[in-house]
Structures
1.
Amino acid sequence: MQQLNPSEISDIIKQRIASMDLQTEARNEGTIVSVSDGIIRIHGMAEARYGEMIEFSAGGFGLALNLERDSVGAVVLGDYQHLAEGQTARCTGRILEVPVGRELVGRVVDALGNPIDGRGDLGTTESDAIEKVAPGVIARKSVDQPVQTGLKCIDAMVPVGRGQRELIIGDRQIGKTAIAVDTIINQKGKNMTCIYVAIGQKMSTIANVVRKLEEHGALDHTIVVAASASTPASMQFLAPYAGCTMGEWFRDHGEDALIIYDDLSKQAVAYRQISLLLKRPPGREAYPGDVFYLHSRLLERASRVNEEYVEAFTNGAVKGKTGSLTALPVIETQAGDVSAFVPTNVISITDGQIFLETDLFNSGIRPSMSPGISVSRVGGSAQTSFIKKISGGIKLALAQYRELAAFSQFASDLDETTRKQLEHGRRVTELMKQRQYAPMSVSEMGVSLFAATQGFLADVEVDKVLAFEAALLEYMHEAHGDFMKQIDESGAYNDEIVETMRSAIARFKETRTW
Amino acid sequence: MAELATLARPYARAVFAVAQDSGAVDAFGQGLALLGAAASAPEVAAMLAAPRPGPAVKAQELAAFLPEGAPEGLRALLTVLAENKRLALLPEIATQYAVARDALEQSLDVEVVLAQPADDAALEALKAALKARFKKDIVLTHRIDPALLGGAVIRAGDTLIDGSVRGRLGRLADALRV
């Protein structure tokens, strides 16, 4: 016996019928003249517009991407085995839309917004175009609120702000997705909706990510948009735009959202495939000429918008609140070559980059962020006062350490100052290591970094630094729980707070072991 | 492989220009329609595609379809097409010629498919409404298709106006499926 779908209740059906517009419509039609590799060539359809949704008489939709004199080249959104020469296709007059709204949170959807997590209908009531113009200059506001990734090396040295675009770039299997997932996990309770867009990855990898998010209670504030490697190139090309539209809904309603595109290199490859099949002329590395625009129009939509924009967008329903969409695009390099075409394109678009290096990864420094060449163009404006004041010496210590590292083999021949700098740098490098799925709060991070910059690690052995940190944080939560909570809430920094930390750490060193 | 329409366009433009210059647009149009229909026939198409006979013979074979008094320009067109091995484009050339002629005469070929037979008055009213919409003289052809259930489907070039009951039911089904 077939199950009754809740949407089949007669009242709901009656409402749908009543609200339907069954006016006679005039539409532009054409005939399919060729079907191959997911690309359809349609003869006629003279009024088709670029990026318009095309509906096929045999079912399914396509996207008009090539407007030629006598034909339209369209890419099929989904399966195309049922399409054949001679069938008709018609213009819909619409740009491709995806469902948007709060109902998407906690769900896994495909690039068209169809749920693929087996939990039934989304229940969304709104939809929005996947291609939209980014907010103009007047609508924007400067980035000055932090996104706490929970990772010491990032929040201390390359802080990310709400509305910023920060690129995560590195070779394969180096921890790019790990940084993204840890950031999502750390957004729990921070009024941030996360969107994780998986492009061209193995389904098993995506399933692992979803499982990890679920285990750490992070799926409740996350939307997952999945376009795996087995989906057509058109889905992999569209998935980032669909995710961006879903994130923009939150931005435009005065809320904060974080979107991770993992990864844009695969989107560029999918777009290259589509462009070459559409017979567009190949450029450098066989990418089409507009591969820069592919990424720039996507990443420009990540922004912070001001209160006036939100109020106008919500027709006065939301007042006095700004909205933001922060983007963390991921790019995979080959053998560390950041001067390749697509990586340089995206580096020039984003507001900073987090470089992950294989050598650091292999030597056990994980996250393997290279502090020398990683940068955040927003910088200190996106840090809480607490972290900003404390972490000032970290980057400098690491820079000095790197400069002197070549001399470390002559340790016994160095003067005292140089030796101390080396020792300090070693300890700070060790401190920057962090386990996966263990993001730190602002207070924990601050206390840890304070211990480093104020010289409390000088008499701790290098291989005991992380154990020291763990024991210190445990002590701080036990003995100074209220203080830690206060820091997490206010992020303030003053002499009293400094003195509290100094005396707490001193007491810890006197009375505890690690 | 280039679209047939793209290949046929220069020929269609050239023969239309010749027809205009000689003031025989209709005569050329009728001759081309005949040649296009002939070239579409399977046996003729097979003959045109075969390596033998040679181009001159193929042009002659096709010219035999032309009536007495057909413009000489059409025979010349056949010779040019045969030399360039483009005789198979004749149907497309005929189509594009017809479109160019309609544009010149500000007329539009419209096909109406009705669910039930309509009287002349209704067809005239429909013609008038279409003329008001497209702002061109309408050349109306119609046929009956009971499968539409009711209403009519109007096809004018690439534009399709679906006022049939079957079309509305289809849209209703799509909306309820979502």
2.
Amino acid sequence: MSHPDQETLVGLALGDEHDTALAAHVQDCPDCRGEVDRTRTLLAGADQLTGGVELERPPDHVWEAVRQELAADDRPRPVAARPRRPWWQPAAAAVAGLAVGVAATIGVAATNDDGPTPVPKPDPTTVARGDVTPFSAGSTTTGTAQVVRRDGARTLDVDLSGTPAPRDDYVQTWLFDPKTNEMIAIGVMDGDSSSFPIPASVDLDTYTSVDISLEPLDGNPAHSATSLARGELRPS
Amino acid sequence: MVDWSDGALTDESTYAVGKRFCSGDESALAEAYERWSPLVYTIAVRATTDRSMADDVAQQVFVKAWRSHEQFDPDRRPLPAWLVGITRHVLADLAQQRDRERRLTDRLARQHPEAPVHEPDSVVDAVVISEGLAQVEQPRRHILELAFFSGLTHAQISHRLELPLGTVKSHIRRGLLQLRDVVEVTDEPS
């Protein structure tokens, strides 16, 4: 059977078509099924309507708040005015950046109150750490995650407890950006404690949080959506 | 695709405002707020059922929209459709956050999780459908309104309007296709 036209598929979504050959075709044809689903979604929205919607104007203070929030974007902020060493950067980069930092500081020195650039700490140094706590229902996984700098390279050291013994699954560590939920797979846990290299290209100012997931052995490399525990890394 | 060149949600000046908006003209933000903040706010009030939260949602939508004005492309969709898309994102984030907080509270209180169903998407769709109806021509609009609001069957509508049943059915089907396009253009990734 060739594809039915759009109007016929709308009729099917309305429950207004009773042709069995048509129903059988749609059952097997992903395109037509998608069409019917699109209309069903629309009908679900229309179901919420009990009459015309009377639009309502927001109170005046909302526009005031929008303007104020956006005006703050335009003001130069003290933090942005002086290039500071990001806390995750290796010491060598900080020293190289120092001359630039000093030159740029002169103009805004009066607004700065956050003190001199800290002396680089010796290796190995914990540059950030965070506790991970149970995230999904029923999880008892807790632990810590630390970003440690050794010889200029960063590793993520993870220590867990309360994780169930693996059966048809394994435990994986991810870094993620809580603003966008974008995830980077960092590595598979070997027991309760593992240490993983963090690629130099990963910006820990963006990927500020750690996710511990339970992954089924299904050959699918994407996140399973079962997060045993999560935590935020904070500079230390 | 629906012809967005006329109707209540858009008219030819919508494109012009969109053009100025994406080029960073601040007067276009004020104009966009003037024209479409009621659409955004009404969706927010219905989805959150909390006025102070709705204030906050409307504020976030316009702040986000302005901060990313360079990503808006007036040739891809009308500005109000894009604003509704941002409203969807803000409401989804809010629902997720509430959900997380509720799960935490449930765990702490060891209560059975209560599950108030929160489907911001169909609320958004409902408001957009209602606005989209205004741009459907007659008699199709009237037929759709009877189908949506009065609960009349197609046969009853045909009887009431003294139109052949086939004509009523065809108007409803074409009208739904038209509305579907209006709603979906607000739900594309930005």
